[in-house]
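Ticket #4471: structure export looks truncated?
Reporter: QA, pipeline team
Priority: medium

Steps to reproduce: submit the single chain below to the structure queue and open the exported record.
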Amino acid sequence: MSWRKEDSPFSQLIFYKEGKRLLFVVDMQNDFVDNKRGLMAVPGGEEIVAGTLERIKKAEAAAETVVFTLNEHHELEEDLRSLEEKAWGHELYGPLKEALKGHVAVKKGYYAVHPDKLMEALKNAGKDHLSVDHIELVGVDTAVCVLSNAVVLRNLFPDAKIIIRTNLTRAKEDELGRKALDVMKGLSMVVL
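Actual output as written to the record:
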């Protein structure tokens, strides 16, 4: 019988392989992060901004690919804001706007990126999208868009180690956030 890393009691530790690493930043836009003016703000979203900025810097230093989503939520009946205010809501939150400049942006509707759009964006950015073996997700909302994107990434990269950084994610509802993390664990993702 041969030894496999998966059989080790240390299998849940993060092993750094030779393949490509991806930091996936989910929906860190004004509407979801700004608790004063954001239309769909996630409580505590602002609290993860500093840590997310730090993680982006580490990714850059390690030459990891950084991808961020831009949720293009369409006209909502309850959204009575001016066009200028709506445009503000779609923008990246505060210092993330500058920090994510030059990284791979993927526009999406509600929930998750379309797999083809993600692969096309990586290819167009000149990123090696075929050998991704380590993905970390950060952002909001854990129970909706983080979960949905994690499932898409699991399907696109079935052999990749996928990590959800709980200190860098937030959910609108804590209980749903915990349940979403359990679902992600059930899909062989590492929840730290």
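Status: closed, not a bug. The export was complete when the record was re-opened. Leaving a note from the reviewer for reference: The chain has a mean pLDDT of 87.
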